[in-house]
Amino acid sequence: MKAAAYPAFTANAFQSRLAYRNQVWASAFGDLVGIFARVAIWTAAFAGAASVDGVTLPEMVTYALLAGPVLYWEYNRLLHDIGDAVRTGDVAIYLLKPLHYPAALLATHIGHFAFEFVAIVLPVAFIVAVTVGLLPPASPFYALMFLAYWAVSWLILFCLACLCGLLAFWLLTAFSLEWFLMGIMSLFSGAVIPLWFMPPALAAIFGYLPFAWVSYYPAAIYLGKLDPDAAWLHLGLGLLWLAALALATAWLWSQARHRLIVQGG
Questions:
Q1: Domain for residue 265, yes or no?
Q2: 141-193 confidence digits (pLDDT tens)
Q3: What is the 3-state secondary structure (H, E, C) of 30-56?
Q4: Which residues constitute the domain of residue 87?
Q5: Which one of 220, 224, 232, 261 is most buried, by most CB atoms within 10 A?
Q6: E-assigned strands of the chain?
Q7: CB-neighbour burial class of residue 247 (10 A; exposed 0-12, middle 13-18, buried 19+)
Q8: pTM of the entire structure?
Q9: 47 occurs within a structural domain
């Protein structure tokens, strides 16, 4: 299939989400509850202090939003899609078409993400901004760098979720994989606790794993916590991780499609 055909998957995914308006309200409400819970936790942790380890409370509120709904798109949907396709045997349809299954998944979930960003992330960010307050990017340079890190973050998380999802070809289910990836991301990505609050030894290790580029580094760049030289360096490292994960995804798919077992009628 020509590359020009893949945008159809993106458009179809975006349009399909328009039919589930109640789900939009539920997702937005869930994100708001999560954000305000994090704000309450960090407000209590700071206990009126102006800053902790050089980090202010407004910076932590902004970090909580960025590391939450902004950078964390609904990757569970990707795992469900792969798991359901393997369980029902629908994945065999993709083998009959001239397309690359992971590439089709990428195009589809770009559409899902675009819908979630417009319908959920932006309204949630606006509500948090007017009720709690959010900081702008540290400078125009960091604003532009954040956009680059955001793209790398999204693609790295897609590759990680796709790698976990493709394991369903061996396990015949993606249910446990969802919890496995969720646990890893919560601990290693800095989504819950930023690396600057972790013990130095752990922060040094986690800071070189690909998970840190999903939440920690984009949010830290937005807040200007890395100097320009370090920002360029870590962007390069993130691109290297992205290339490695993309190659791993392509290789795992090449192995998985030979292990297809169609269940059901």
A1: no
A2: 999 999 999 999 999 999 999 998 888 888 767 777 777 888 888 888 888 88
A3: HHHHHHHHHHHHHHHHHCCCCEECCEE
A4: 3-256
A5: 220
A6: 51-52, 55-56
A7: exposed
A8: 0.89
A9: yes
